[in-house]
Structure formats: C-alpha cells, structure tokens
C-alpha cells in the first residue's frame, strides 16, 4: 500500500523534467496526466487513511494528511487542464516556448512541494516542504514579468520568508520541548512527539504554538499577516492563483493544525483554541469588510480566501467533533469552489482583457458556460445549498453552538452573511447585467477554449457530491480526521 | 557537564566566550541597521554568519558534539561564502552603491531596535526555558536579533537591505537552535541550510527582475497594489 504514499510525492517531478526538454504540447499533456494520476492516487489513499496510519521511510499519512493531499491533487489536476486553455491565448507570442517552459517547470514543482508537505513525517520536514512551496510559488507569481507581478512577488517572498523564519523558530522551540522527553537527538517525527506530548514542558510548547500560528499563518493568510495575499493572488497567472488559493493556503493551515494537535495535548484545548478563534474572527471580519468594496475581480476572490481561512481557524477554535469534521470538509469544498471561481475569473479576464469588476458585464452572454458557472462557484463559496461549503459551514456553526460558544458562532454567521453580500453583488452584476450595447473591445460570444470549461464542470460536480452525499469512505476519513484533531488528553 | 551547570555565580570560560559571541552577533545586527552602503551590509552579514560558525565550533568543542563541526563548516561555506558572493555579484551588475534611505532616521530606528531588543531579551529571559548547551542569556539574545532584523526589513526601503534583513533573521534563528536544539540531527540542519540557499537564489532572481524593471534597487516605487 506504500505505492499510494510514495507515488504522489514523486509524480509531478516527471512533467517538471519534461518541461525542461520536451515540446510544450507534450509537457502540457504530461502535466494533465500527472494531475489526474495524483488525484486517482489520492482517492485510493482515502479508504486506507480512513482506517489506519500509513508509514514508509520519511513519508506518513493519517486521515488529516489524506484530506489535504486530496484537496491539493484535485486542484492540481483541474489547474493543469485549465492552464492549457489559459495559455492558448499566448501561443503566438515570440517567446512563448521559453515562457511555457518556465511556467510548467514552476507549476509542477509547486504541485510537487504541496503534495509532499502533508505527506512528510515530522515537523522539520514539514517546514522544509512549506519553504519550498514559498520559493517556487514566488517565482510563479513573478513569471508574467509585469510591473504588478514584480511588486507582488517581492512582497510575497519577503513576507512569507519572514513568516517562515518565525515558523522555523517555532520548530526549534518544539524541538527543545520534545528533547525534554525524547532525548537530545531525535527527528521531530509526529508519532513519538504526539505520544510524548502530555509530558512536554508547557511554556516551550505554548511559545512554539503561538509562533507557529503567526509564522505558518502568514502563509495561510490569517489577519494581520495576510498582506501579501491579495497582491500575489491578483497578479499571478490564473492557474497559479487557483493553486495558491485552493491548496497552498490549506497546506499552510495543515502545518498550523499539526502544532495545534501537540499544543492541545500538552496544554489542554482551551489555550490553542482561543488563539485560533481570535485569529479566525479577525480574518473573517477584515475580509468581509474588504469584500464589500472591491474593484478587482481577482482581489475579490483573494479576500474571499482570507475569509475562508478565518472560517477554518474558527472551526478548529470551536473544537467540537462535528465542527472539526466540518473544517476538514471545508478544506475540500473550498479547494473545489475557489479553484472554480479563479478559473471562471481567468476566463472572464481573458475574454474582457481587464480585471476591473465594473468593466466586466454581461458574462452570461459572452461566456455561455464560464459565466454562469462562475456565478455558481461564487454562490457555492457563499455557502448556498446544495454545495459542499453549505454542509461544512453548517457543521462548523453547529459545532460552535454545541460547544456553548454562542457569541463566536453568532459572529461567524453575521460575518459570513456580510461576505456573501459583497461576493454575490459583485458576481451577479458581472454575470447578469447585460453588456453595454457599444461593447467596446469585446470579442464574439463563445468560450475561448474547452480546456477552460471541463475542469470547472468537474469542480462543480465535486461540490455537488460533497454537498449532497459525500461518499462513505470520505465520511469515514473526515470522522477519523476529526478524532485525530479532537481531544486526546 | 554538571560542574558547568553548577558553576553558580562565577561564569566559566565557556559561558564567557559564548555570551561574548552572542552579544557580538547582536551588535553586527545593529551595525547593519546603520550601514548606509549596500556592500557594507553584505559584509556585515558575512561577519555575522562567520560568528555563528565560531559559536557552533565553541559549542562543539565544549559540549562534545562532533556533528556541530560539520554544521559549522557547511554553514560557513553557505552563509559567509555563497550568499554574500551572490548578493555582491548582483550589486556589481546593478552598479548601485548606496542603500535606500530608511522610512525613519537611523537614530530613531536604533532607539526602536534597542527597545525591541531589550523587550525580547527580558521577555524570553523570564520564560522557564533552560538550555543544557548554552548559557541562558544567549536565547534572549537570539530573539533580540530576530526582532532587530524585523526592524531592518521594515524601515529600509531597498531590496538589498530587506533581503539581508531576512538572512540575518535566519542567523538569529540559527543562534536559537544552537542554544536549545544543538542535538538536532545534522541532516535536518543541513536541509534548513539548503532551503536557505534556495531562498537566496530566488531572492536574487527577484532582485534582478526588480532592477531590470525599475533601474534601481529601491522599493519606493512598489506601491501600486493596494486595497
């Protein structure tokens, strides 16, 4: 069974190597193939990880990691297909082969590092993997070489690296804490650390947890250390934005969850939950306000990512088992919905050649598939039934009420509604307001490429499955993940 | 070992040596804050990295941790050799001598850093984190270095100072890891270092892109993305 563990951590290296030498077409199809294979393997991992932990060498998968691998692999496959349609527009440019080589090399390495992060065993390797995601994605943000892209990439690499410097400090303090129980030299692997967690020195663990939330939270987009996020998401090429939002933020949040597991065992759940609750509510509040008045469609989606990371943090902060299962479901549903929303926005930006919301009008006529599906993705993001996020947010709120945290639960509902207002207003205007008669600069109605439609349909189907009837194996996985995150002390 | 821990009031040679090096590390961080030439900032960073390696050798000798000798060598090659060389090459190509001005004056920045360094030192000193390898003061100093590095990254408005700020932040973390995690397996330490090297290369690429685009190393033009 080690195949499902090893292969996802190696597969994307193949198209990455192909990007260096093979023709663009071959690389593109190999990337799609690798994405689909990674997703199939992740699906194969689900029933196993739902029953027991898998372990081989430096790789390890439990239910928690399987959830994040599944989300990442899905976004990887969808974006790989989308990128073919997205880049078709540039194919006639003179330096396209060079651009495509760089793009696919970075794209596949980015996917590889994000698949590795949840699969490696130990906090040290986890930090290394997350740092690799940063450096690769910073180059991808800059790949378009525009003024905005350069600025965004610099802010991103500086802030994220500084955040990861703090996360490294957290790793060091956790190493110190662990060395009190496990001896001077050990490798920070999860299982021994979790077993010893109850006997670790509380001060060091507390310090380490707060530093980890701040450090990895920088990459997960938690307020107030989210400032790189809207810039990077808005300026990166759209397939990269979708990967940043759908999986990178989640993978960084995964790192926070690992520290949470240890801190909750050592310190008892109250302190770590309160920390996450505070960060979560701050993120949700700020994002909801920014969503009300946004002019750039990709920045709109970026702030929606901050909102959803806030919801994840609040869900863990509630701590009830149903809320924790909701958080894990939310990771999956958000990956599908945000991937879809960014891909839809990408189609819009390609068709209208602008990111300004007030100049995007009548998308339902101009893009007969992408327009309505973009609206559906936004509605899914706003937690409307029958999509997956409705189910997950429902569970999180129920968990909040269950654990007696009425105040935060009420705040959550109010702020999510506020965010819904901002998102829904902008999206309905874009899709349903008729295009101005003059239609300056507009092309003929019609989809730019079928490659940009298929992954969005797949994402919509995934959202429906998650919302209406999650498969039994997946439900088991989520329940087991919730148990892993829940009280162990 | 026990004799060293039980030394009580009179510090041993080892404690004196390590504390001195740790204080020197913090002082180079302050020197970076006031350096007005990009080149001297890079040189100061090289000196600071060299001091980290010296400290690693002292700990290796006094505490009998032979792995730390290897770490000291790798760290010296990368952080005092490769990284400054890469940035210096960039500076030569860019033909820019003077680092960007600070958002606040040098005096205010130094006062702010003094306050933060004091805060870091005493806040961490009051925690109950005892090291078996290094004197307690060194941990507080490492947190001070991290905080001053943040000031450097925040107040300076050019890409070289900001990058050097990040690299020296990493030196502060290295000091912390020598204090409380000296027994960490060498392979993990080396993985951290190579990650840093990759980060340096990416910083270098982005600095070059930035320089091509704006013909300067200043970050003052990077204000178009807001809201």
From TrEMBL, chain A:
It is found in: Cell membrane; Membrane. Residues 123-414 form the NADH:quinone oxidoreductase/Mrp antiporter transmembrane domain. It is a multi-pass membrane protein. Keywords: Cell membrane, Membrane, Oxidoreductase, Signal, Transmembrane, Transmembrane helix. InterPro entries: ComplexI-like_HydComp, NADH_UbQ_OxRdtase, ND/Mrp_TM. The keyword DNA repair does not apply. It holds the Pfam family Proton_antipo_M. Residues 1-21 form the signal peptide. The keyword Cell membrane applies. The chain crosses the membrane at residues 63-87, 99-120, 126-144, 156-177, 209-229, 241-262, 274-292, 312-333, 369-390, 410-430, 450-469. This is NADH dehydrogenase FAD-containing subunit. The lineage of its organism: Bacteria, Bacillati, Actinomycetota, Actinomycetes, Kitasatosporales.
From TrEMBL, chain B:
InterPro entries: HyfE-like. This is Hydrogenase. The keyword Membrane applies. PANTHER family: HYDROGENASE-4 COMPONENT E. It comes from the Bacteria. It is found in: Cell membrane. The chain crosses the membrane at residues 44-62, 68-87, 99-124, 136-155, 190-209. Keywords: Cell membrane, Membrane, Transmembrane, Transmembrane helix. It is a multi-pass membrane protein. Its main location: membrane.
């Amino acid at each position: 069974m080690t195949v499902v563990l090893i292969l996802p951590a190696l597969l994307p290296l193949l198209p990455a190597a192909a990007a260096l030498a093979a023709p663009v077409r071959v690389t593109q199809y190999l990337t799609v193939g690798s994405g689909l294979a990674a997703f199939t393997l992740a699906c194969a991992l689900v029933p196993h990880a739902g029953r027991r932990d898998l372990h081989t060498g430096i790789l390890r998968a439990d239910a928690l990691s399987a959830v994040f691998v599944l989300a990442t692999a899905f976004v990887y496959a969808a974006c790989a297909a989308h990128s073919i349609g997205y880049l078709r527009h540039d194919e006639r440019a003179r330096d396209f082969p060079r651009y495509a080589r760089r793009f696919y090399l970075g794209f596949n390495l980015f996917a590889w590092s994000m698949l590795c992060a949840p699969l490696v065993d130990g906090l040290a390797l986890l930090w290394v993997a997350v740092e690799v995601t940063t450096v690769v994605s910073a180059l991808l943000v800059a790949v378009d070489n525009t003024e905005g892209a350069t600025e965004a990439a610099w802010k991103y690499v500086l802030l994220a690296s500084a955040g990861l410097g703090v996360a490294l400090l957290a790793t060091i303090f956790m190493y110190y804490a662990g060395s009190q129980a496990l001896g001077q030299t050990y490798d920070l692997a999860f299982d021994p650390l979790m077993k010893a967690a109850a006997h670790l020195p509380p001060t060091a663990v507390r310090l380490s947890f707060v530093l980890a939330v701040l450090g990895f939270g920088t990459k997960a987009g938690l307020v107030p250390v989210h400032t790189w996020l809207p810039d990077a998401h808005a300026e990166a090429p759209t397939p990269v934005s979708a990967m940043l939002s759908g999986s990178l933020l989640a993978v960084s949040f995964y790192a926070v969850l690992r520290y949470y597991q240890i801190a909750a065992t050592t310190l008892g759940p109250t302190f770590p939950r309160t920390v996450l609750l505070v960060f979560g509510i701050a993120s949700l509040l700020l994002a909801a306000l920014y969503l009300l008045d946004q002019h750039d469609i990709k920045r709109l989606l970026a702030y929606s990512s901050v909102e959803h990371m806030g919801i994840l943090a609040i869900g863990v902060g509630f701590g009830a088992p149903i809320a924790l299962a909701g958080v894990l479901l939310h990771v999956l549903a958000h990956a599908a919905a945000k991937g879809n929303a960014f891909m839809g926005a990408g189609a819009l930006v390609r068709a209208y050649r602008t990111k300004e919301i007030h100049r995007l009008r009548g998308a339902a006529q101009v893009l007969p598939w992408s327009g309505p599906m973009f609206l559906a993705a936004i509605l899914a993001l706003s937690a409307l039934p029958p999509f997956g996020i409705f189910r997950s947010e429902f569970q999180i709120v129920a968990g909040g009420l269950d654990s007696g945290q009425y105040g935060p639960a009420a705040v959550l509902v109010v702020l999510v509604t506020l965010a819904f207002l901002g998102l829904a207003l902008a999206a309905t205007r874009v899709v349903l307001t008729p295009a101005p008669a003059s239609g300056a600069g507009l092309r003929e109605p019609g989809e730019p490429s079928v490659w940009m439609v298929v992954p969005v349909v797949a994402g919509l189907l995934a959202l429906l499955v998650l919302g209406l009837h999650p498969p039994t194996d997946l439900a088991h996985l989520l329940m087991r993940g919730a148990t892993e995150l829940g009280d162990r002390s | 070992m026990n004799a060293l821990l039980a030394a009580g009031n009179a510090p041993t040679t080892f404690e004196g040596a390590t504390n001195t090096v740790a204080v020197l590390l913090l002082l180079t961080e302050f020197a970076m804050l006031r350096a007005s030439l990009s080149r001297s900032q890079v040189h100061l960073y090289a000196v600071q990295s060299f001091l980290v390696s010296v400290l690693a050798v002292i700990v290796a000798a006094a505490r009998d941790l032979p792995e730390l000798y290897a770490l000291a060598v790798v760290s010296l090659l990368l952080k005092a050799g490769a990284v400054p060389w890469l940035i210096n090459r960039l500076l030569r190509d860019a033909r820019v001598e003077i680092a960007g001005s600070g958002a606040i004056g040098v005096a205010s920045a130094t006062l702010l850093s003094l306050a933060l360094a004091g805060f870091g030192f005493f806040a961490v000193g009051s925690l109950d984190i005892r090291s078996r390898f290094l004197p307690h003061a060194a941990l507080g100093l490492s947190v001070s270095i991290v905080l001053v590095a943040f000031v450097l990254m925040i107040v300076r408005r050019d890409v070289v100072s900001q990058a050097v700020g990040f690299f020296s932040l990493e030196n502060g973390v290295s000091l912390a890891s020598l204090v409380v995690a000296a027994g960490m397996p060498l392979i993990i330490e080396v993985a951290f270092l190579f990650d840093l090297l990759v980060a340096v290369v990416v910083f270098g690429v982005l600095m070059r892109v930035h320089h091509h685009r704006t013909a300067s190393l200043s970050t003052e033009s990077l204000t178009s993305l807001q809201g």
